Amino acid sequence: MKATGLIVEYNPFHYGHQYHFLQSKEASGADCTVAIMSGNFLQRGEPAIIDKWHRAQIALQSGIDIVLEIPYVFAVQNSDLFAKGAVLSLDALGVDSICFGSEDGSIEPFVNAHNELQVHEKEYHESLHEHLKEGLSFPEASRHAYHKIGLGDDAIDLGQPNNILGFSYTKTILDYNLNIKPMTIQRKQSGYHDETIEHKIASATSIRKEILSQGYITEEAKGSLPPLTVDALEQYRDVTGSWHEWELYFPLLQYKISTMSPEELGQIHGVEEGLEHRFKQTIHKANNFQEWMNLIKTKRYTWTRLQRTLTHILTNTKTKEIESISTINEAPYVRLLGMTNMGQQYISQQKKEMDCPLITQLHKGVHPFLTIEERAVDSYLSMFKPTIKRERRNREFMPPILP
Amino acid sequence: MKATGLIVEYNPFHYGHQYHFLQSKEASGADCTVAIMSGNFLQRGEPAIIDKWHRAQIALQSGIDIVLEIPYVFAVQNSDLFAKGAVLSLDALGVDSICFGSEDGSIEPFVNAHNELQVHEKEYHESLHEHLKEGLSFPEASRHAYHKIGLGDDAIDLGQPNNILGFSYTKTILDYNLNIKPMTIQRKQSGYHDETIEHKIASATSIRKEILSQGYITEEAKGSLPPLTVDALEQYRDVTGSWHEWELYFPLLQYKISTMSPEELGQIHGVEEGLEHRFKQTIHKANNFQEWMNLIKTKRYTWTRLQRTLTHILTNTKTKEIESISTINEAPYVRLLGMTNMGQQYISQQKKEMDCPLITQLHKGVHPFLTIEERAVDSYLSMFKPTIKRERRNREFMPPILP
Question: Which helix (DSSP H) or strand (DSSP E) does residue B219 occupy?
């Protein structure tokens, strides 16, 4: 049985994701699709609009065979660590290929870029370091350094977030010498309209913006979302009273930052170079999250970088707890959220070959990262009343879901 | 100019407090009354129904000349530490007497009890230790130990909370050999009805229970509250949307306890003997604060003791930050909340004699306890929207209030 791996957030699952998934299955010739998804918090340091279980359910019902979770400690990180967490998990489950979306749809530029980087590694790092010292953000400094070693405009455009992620996936596969074929599917442009089936591709960001600002799923948004997603989003909100967004967590951030000492804040992953003082000095000056972000962002600290740090403050994730993520070279465990019958067959086949634990329920004591996972769940659910909180957190301790 | 000191919580200020204040002034022959009040959190480990500034304002408008604040680190403590924080501050401001309410109205039993305790100190401590080892709570063990050394039913009844506090005040004055005369006024019984002026004395606890459970100030409650208090309570609630009670902070406790490690919880003042595990195991089993308290209380840990610990969790107050409170033997500072003209004259007169700083605004760096004070303010205000939070916390950095 052949499997292809997809690295996803599905926040929420839309027609672009469906297209990517169907194309990947066809191109890879896989029998089984394994989507590894960020959990309740996303790579850009944001709470997912609905929780991981509901997003996994939509994926299974849309035809994905297995949904895994990227461990929180890897998910809310820069593209290289995010890729590492995702790719190593997929490798542990023995996928044959990983298929990601890119602007161009051709894998050679990614592989070539990796080769170039290996040849010019020293030069790249020197240039990167120089630009960081100038006060540039990591993505900016990195873009300059790539340009310096010839990975500029002629190669893949590493200014495009999706290309950056794709490049990180490719690098991880090649660096760790994994038995996985990197593949890419050309993304359908945002705004692409398929006249025959009357829906269009829009980015998840623009869809979220639309529904969060309007407070309901507009006709415009419905045009880009499969009915499964629309129903799941509406049902979620009917039960919980709201979707998740940073604004709802702002009071908690205010509380947390004003009651932690600068020393305590300094222990949180990502709080460095005096950010703790900047946070404490400004936290009561803003009326909402958006306003506050505009007060604290700088050339050096991008919006995304800051959001990730704030997520770690919310989840109380300390640098020393997750130091090992940069040196680890195999998956700490594989966390299974849900599967179809086909998925179940594939897992039965692979299970005996696996070198790391397969986590089907959040048992304690298996790995310290699972304690952080539980805190991420509790932070994410903090906005709900106790009964909903209890029901939702209990889900973590139950067997994986079925479609 | 002679001053008498009152140790109060005014939560909220009622006719019983007015009676105590007028009687104290008369009995002591003082020109000036100094009330030292717990701040936003009270001795029993509860948020005050309205904030300290509004409570101070009512006191000044009711005729109190000076309102000081008991430092948080002393206020949310057992009766001996509470007394120490209050009495040493009053001493620093040079009061001639301290006048407290008691069931009996006579000071001799308190002074005699102190003498007895000095004579039988070893026996008392042995007995106390023995009963604590049996698993009794401190107040229970202490009551048994007093009984053992003859401070039983014939002497003052140390089972009565007000007598316990009065005894702690007396002990502090005598132990530190302060130049203060301890005095006591007989309390009017709860339910006491003064036919001529158509109001009655009720306990602050029963008044709070009435208005918090009903959600408004009932006619029953109005019968026990001066119009000043009724107006202040109503105005407060009109602006902020609610009065303060533990139930409103329960979501924060759930968040805090589930995202702190047992080791981190163990550093909080009062978390000992495995309470951290008990808290973590039960925090999601209850639907509200009341239910949760019933799950965690034991023979050893009284409701009050637990509430104080939970307040320290809310304010992130660690044992090592406040170790010095048991050995300190003078006021770290005197915090002034408000004063009348008479109060201002008294302070001008006393200021040059003072051995510790007089804090009129919450400046940082003067004393580490003031950082904790600021955290207590931010925790207390955490339930409000950012605009109200900002306005209310700014009050801390402004000059004292006038009537």
Answer: helix B219-222
